Amino acid sequence: MASDYPLTPTTSPTPAAERERILAAPGFGRYFTDHMSTATWSADLGWHGHRVGPLEPFSLHPSAAVLHYAQEIFEGLKAYRHADGSVWLFRPEQNAARFARSARRMALPRLPEEDFLAGVEALVRADEPWVPVPGNEESLYLRPFMFASEAFLGVRPATQIVFSVIASPAGPYFTSGLTGVTLWVTSTYSRAARGGTGAAKCGGNYAGGLAAQLEAEEHGCDQVLYLDSAGEGNLEESGTMNLCLITADGRLITPPLGTILEGVTRDTLLTLAAEAGLTCQERPITIEELREGAADGTVTEVFAAGTAAVVTPVVGFKGDGYAFTVGDGEPGRRTAALRTRVLDIQYGRAEDPHGWLRRVL
Ligand SMILES: *Cc1c(COP(=O)(O)O)cnc(C)c1O
């Protein structure tokens, strides 16, 4: 049975007028709701102290293991308000299961999946007024995370751990319609190696990716695209999103799992693309194959997939000594259709034939 997260309401909630001002233009990751879920784990007690309380800073000893050895994982998912006012999560069981896999990889304790879900749902209930009424793809972004809080400088899995969930209202990722991004194909950095942490959603992967992101920006690109670390030129992912190609003969091709992050959006799109008549292939694709395909018109569209932006059209690539566009350099038709299809299910505008939605309120 799932643990309860009893609520201790904040005594100083954000005034309703200020909340409405924030919800009118929330951006991404800038504003936070009034509450947070927490639970703690210790080697002797296991998980205990589950609660929802006021959003507040953590108090950490300067030797806390997370600050030195980055023993930390996180998740990202959204709560969607439907037209009838009800509030839903999209495939949160997938996030719970991935959180458990990430925990195992980072030698963190396993949080039962039902306790992950209960912590997320308790926070959504406590902060229900923060779930935006969607005018243009607004949602409440939920950020579950777990870190090593033990005060100890020795190197071993920590014996004191914190699990928490915070929430941040999110506006439309694309404010002026669906625009495409360009990716910088880095030959300086790699994101993950075989046996490494590429498949875990951990903060360390992101810290290691920041220099590559700066390199992309120096070359006038929006995001970085990583190739495999073995030097075989295989496409991996863009650091926060998975990559998919669409071909003129109706295939959707995406790199196989292994060193990439197993995206819920990626998995969702593989299902929806097949239903839309595309033939889906999970297989290695080299940057040469992509370059040639873009040049001779076999690859007609490319997009990146992840919870935050859902589906992001990729219209161009740059690398050391080359640059090319995909199609006519505009977001593709099938990309836009897949994006609309996911959003229609998430916002309850279409049937949910796979039972992906989970009602909270
Ligand atoms: C979270 C994440 C994704 C996207 O996963 P979703 O479950 O679709 O949000 C892709 N790549 C990386 C590195 C990620 O951390």
- Number of beta strands: 16
Helix content: 25-40%
Q: How does the major sheet shape up?
A: 8 strands, antiparallel
Radius of gyration: 21 Å
Low-confidence stretches: none
DSSP helical segment count = 8
According to CATH, the homologous superfamily of the largest domain is D-amino Acid Aminotransferase, subunit A, domain 2
**Overall pLDDT metric:** 97
Strand content: 25-35%
Cofactor: pyridoxal 5'-phosphate
Protein name: branched-chain-amino-acid transaminase
Modified residues (N6-(pyridoxal phosphate)lysine): 201
Catalytic activity: L-leucine + 2-oxoglutarate = 4-methyl-2-oxopentanoate + L-glutamate; L-isoleucine + 2-oxoglutarate = (S)-3-methyl-2-oxopentanoate + L-glutamate; L-valine + 2-oxoglutarate = 3-methyl-2-oxobutanoate + L-glutamate
Task: Describe it.
The two termini are 20 Å apart. The chain is α+β, with helices and mostly antiparallel strands and 361 residues long. β8, α5 (203-218) and β9 (223-225) form a beta-alpha-beta unit. It has 2 domains: 16-170, Aminotransferase class 4, branched-chain amino acid transferase, N-terminal domain (D-amino Acid Aminotransferase, Chain A, domain 1), CATH 3.30.470; 181-346, D-amino Acid Aminotransferase, subunit A, domain 2 (D-amino Acid Aminotransferase, Chain A, domain 2, Alpha-Beta Barrel), CATH 3.20.10. Strands 1, 2, 3, 4, 5, 6, 7 and 16 form an 8-stranded antiparallel beta sheet that branches. Strands 8, 9, 10, 11, 12, 13, 14 and 15 form an 8-stranded mixed beta sheet that branches. The mean pLDDT is 97. It contains 8 helices and 16 strands. The chain is 26% helix and 27% strand. The chain is globular, with a radius of gyration of 21 Å. Pyridoxal-5'-phosphate (PLP) is lined by residues 76, 201, 237, 239-242, 261, 263-266, 305-307. Its cofactor is pyridoxal 5'-phosphate. This is branched-chain-amino-acid transaminase. GO terms for molecular function: L-isoleucine-2-oxoglutarate transaminase activity; L-leucine-2-oxoglutarate transaminase activity; L-valine-2-oxoglutarate transaminase activity. It comes from Streptomyces diacarni. Keywords: Amino-acid biosynthesis, Aminotransferase, Branched-chain amino acid biosynthesis, Pyridoxal phosphate, Transferase.
